[in-house]
Amino acid sequence: xxxxxxxxxxxGEIILNGASVRFTSPIDxxxxxxxxxxxxLSIIPDLTVAENISIVSHRxxxxxxxxxxxxxxxxxxxxxxxxxxxxxxxxxCSNLSLSRLQxxxxxxxxxxxxxxxxxxxxxxxxAAADTEKVFTLLGDLRNDGVSMIYISxxxxxxxxxxxxxxxFRNGERVSTFAQGTKSQEEIIEMMLGRPLSTVx
Length: 200
Description:
The chain has 200 residues and is of the alpha/beta class.
């Protein structure tokens, strides 16, 4: 939340591209090409898919707003990249399932063209097929040079996509290690703070 500009630090420093930065709001972070997808959706149900995606989207230089046609075209482009062509940009979000809304939330984040993407339990509301689409998308983004912070308690997901892992417990970082160098049992023990044999 500090990196995303939602919360303010009371200690420490954020270094971005070699410079110290401080974000007083999420808009500050977005302007620095950092965007977050939180577990709690920020979709406005009475707006269309395209309108939700365009709320914070990257606009062409000199443009302060996008026409409805431009919003739909932008939404179609992003949804196609996500392999979600079945989501109609003109559909009201109030008519979509929770899984579809989560995909729209991710599409909204991508519309800002982030260089750092933070995903907090991003697959918690997704159906299995949609989860696979998101993992394929994350692989494409990584190949395009986008850095990602992926927060999850699903170890299978971490094993599939992570390069470097950090375990946090009660707000404190316990350990950071290369993916594949710790067993699931070791990771779970770090998460719990005690040997796994004492849990059961």
